[in-house]
Amino acid sequence: MSAAIHAFARPEVPPLPPYNAGLSSDAVRARYGVSEIARLASNENPYGPSPAVARALVDLAARAGTYPDANSTALRAAIAQRTGAQPGEVVIGNGSEDILQMLCQALLSPGDRVLTQRPAFGLHEIYPRMMGAQVELLTLTPELGFDVDAWCAALARGPKVVMLANPSNPVGCMFDAADFARLLAAVPAGTLLVVDEAYYEYARLAPGYPDVLALLRAWQAAGEGRSPWIVLRTFSKAWGLAGLRVGYGIASDAALVQLLDRVRTPFNVNLAAQAAALAAWGDEAFMAQAVARTVQQREALAAQLRALAGSVWPGLRIAPSAANFLFVDLGRANAPVNEALLARGIIVKPWKEPGFETFIRVSVGTDADNARFVQALAEIAGGQG
Ligand SMILES: *Cc1c(COP(=O)(O)O)cnc(C)c1O
C-alpha cells in the first residue's frame, strides 16, 4: 500500500492482516496443471445442501427485481421456533462473520479490551482491531486444548467482549459442560460473551459437548444484572450453504439485536440466501445425515493419520476434534508439505501464525478426498515430494 493512500486511512486499518481465505480451485488448477481438486481448506460440507434448496432457488430469477425482506422475518421465525428463542432475540447475518462485524461496530471503541485466543478464527481478532480495540490472545495448553484456568483468570480482568469459538477453529478442541460452567462463574458484570458455535451441528455429537444455549439461559435467569451474551451459528458448514452466506445469532436480549440493527446494512441477507436457508432448515434430516457421515469419516481419517505417525511419519500429531476438520502438527515446516499437496491437487490450510508453522488444518472431505490426502502424505513422507 502506498504511503499517500495510507494517509487517508483510519490508523487502525493499514496494519490489519488480510484475511487468509486460501487458494481457489481454479487458481490451483491453473498453477499446478492438475484437474482433480480435493477442497480440504475451508471446512465446507462436501455433501452440499438439501435438495430442497435447489427447489427453493429455481424460480428466484423472476423475483430478483424486488428487495429482500430487510428483517428476514420468515427465517427468524423458523430459527426462533426450533431454538426456543423469541424472534426478536434472533439476528440474521450475511454469514456469521457479518454478525461478528456488527457486534464490533456496535460495541467497541478504541482502547476497549477483547479476549480471545491464538490460533483462532481470524475475524475474532481482525474485527475488534479494526475498531481500535486491544485484543488479548490466550494460548493453548501443550495438549492442544483450551486453557480453562487462563480463560477464567483473563475474564476476571474484565474484558468488554469475549470471543470464544466452541469448538475452536482451527484446533477443534472444546469446552465441555464443566469447563463452560467454570467459565460462566468467572464472567464479571460488564463483559459480553460471544460464543461462536459455527460447528455446533458436528460438535453436539461429541460426548460432553455442552448445551451452551441452555446453560446461558439458566445462568441469566439465576442472577440479577447478568451480562448479555450471544451465540452465533451458521448455514455455511453443516447446512452446506457457504456460497450463499447466511449466519444467525441468538441473543440474551431483544435489545442487543435492536442495537445490531442500528449498524446492520438494511438488506444484508439477500433473497436467494433467505430462501435457501429456510429450505435447508426445513430438511434437518438431510443435514443430520451428512453430519453423521462426516463425524465417522473424521474418526477414520484421524486413525489413518495416527497410523502414518506410527510408521512413515513419526512426529505427526493430531489434535482431538469435535468439528469437521483436523488440526495436524506435521513436526516439520508446513510450507514445503503444502506445496507438495497442492501439486497433487489437494488444498489444505497451512497455519502461518508464530509457533504454528508446522501445522495444517485439513477439512474432512469425501472418502475419496480423504484417501487422496493420506496417500499424498505417505508419498511426501517417503521423499517422493
Ligand atoms: C466458518 C466460521 C465462521 C464463518 O461462517 P460464515 O457464516 O460463513 O461467515 C465463523 N466462525 C467460525 C469459528 C468459523 O469457523
From TrEMBL:
Record-linked PROSITE patterns: AA_TRANSFER_CLASS_2
Example GO molecular function: pyridoxal phosphate binding
Pathway membership, UniProt: Amino-acid biosynthesis; L-histidine biosynthesis; L-histidine from 5-phospho-alpha-D-ribose 1-diphosphate: step 7/9
Taxonomy, superkingdom: Bacteria
Residue ranges of every copy of the Aminotransferase class I/classII large domain listed in the record: 38-377
Catalyzed chemical reaction(s): L-histidinol phosphate + 2-oxoglutarate = 3-(imidazol-4-yl)-2-oxopropyl phosphate + L-glutamate
Cofactor(s) needed: pyridoxal 5'-phosphate
Modified residues (N6-(pyridoxal phosphate)lysine): 237
Keywords (A to Z) from UniProt: Amino-acid biosynthesis, Aminotransferase, Histidine biosynthesis, Pyridoxal phosphate, Transferase
EC number: 2.6.1.9
GO biological process: L-histidine biosynthetic process
InterPro entries assigned to the protein according to its UniProt record, in alphabetical order: Aminotrans_II_pyridoxalP_BS, Aminotransferase_I/II_large, HisP_aminotrans, HistidinolP_aminotransfase, PyrdxlP-dep_Trfase, PyrdxlP-dep_Trfase_major, PyrdxlP-dep_Trfase_small
Pfam families in UniProt: Aminotran_1_2
Family recorded in the similarity comment: Belongs to the class-II pyridoxal-phosphate-dependent aminotransferase family. Histidinol-phosphate aminotransferase subfamily.
Self-association state and partner proteins as the record states: Homodimer.
HAMAP family named in the record: HisC_aminotrans_2
Name of the protein: Histidinol-phosphate aminotransferase
Originating species: Variovorax boronicumulans
